[in-house]
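User: Some background: our group keeps a shared notebook of sequences we're curious about, and every so often someone picks one and asks for a predicted structure to add to the entry. Today it's my turn. The entry only has the sequence so far, pasted here. Could you supply the structure so I can complete it?
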Amino acid sequence: MTAAKPTGEVPWTTEFCQMKKQSGLTNIYMELGSTFGSSSRPIPPRAPPARQIIGAFGADHVLWGTDSIWYGTPQWQIEAFRRFEMPAALVEKYHYAPVTRGEKEQIFGLNAARVFGVDVTAKRNEIPKDYLTRMKMAYLDEGVAPSHRWYGWVTGCPRAAAFNPRRELMARLPDPLSTLTPDARRVYDKITAKRGQMKGGPSLR
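Assistant: Of course. Here's the predicted structure to add to the notebook entry:
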């Protein structure tokens, strides 16, 4: 990225923002790419092109990007943008508005979710579909207090038989066989029958 001019203009970025304002178009989205990362490293900071982009396109038309293919992990850029506050000197000199938390949330993901039709609220509260997570949720439903139950393989103990957490958890979950397709069930039944004919053959159940 080319250094900013004394007027605060950033070559290419400022010109593009001016073109956007003059065009009056509302269906153009700007993706930051490495723009923020490149402008956040110099000390003292340059006139932030990200603020110019937000001002020209609107916070609801800017998408987060890092160009991490060139820089490796983008985490440092994410953390920098989270902590970013407009330097007072630049606010006074160029009359930049601060970047609010709401604008950051829009840029980080809410705008992209809207563009690609992702229901953010539903996605955040989605019930996991995998078997292991459902077992974990069933376990957590019992509460955080210790149960004092006996875990592991314990034989010959009435208390262990009476308090079997694994059996209780499994009882809450649907039968895995109920999820098989008709063809898969027929194959399963054939294998079970075949092994049942074998002397001492193990059962699949």
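Suggested note for the entry: The chain is about 50% helix and 0% strand. The chain has a mean pLDDT of 76.
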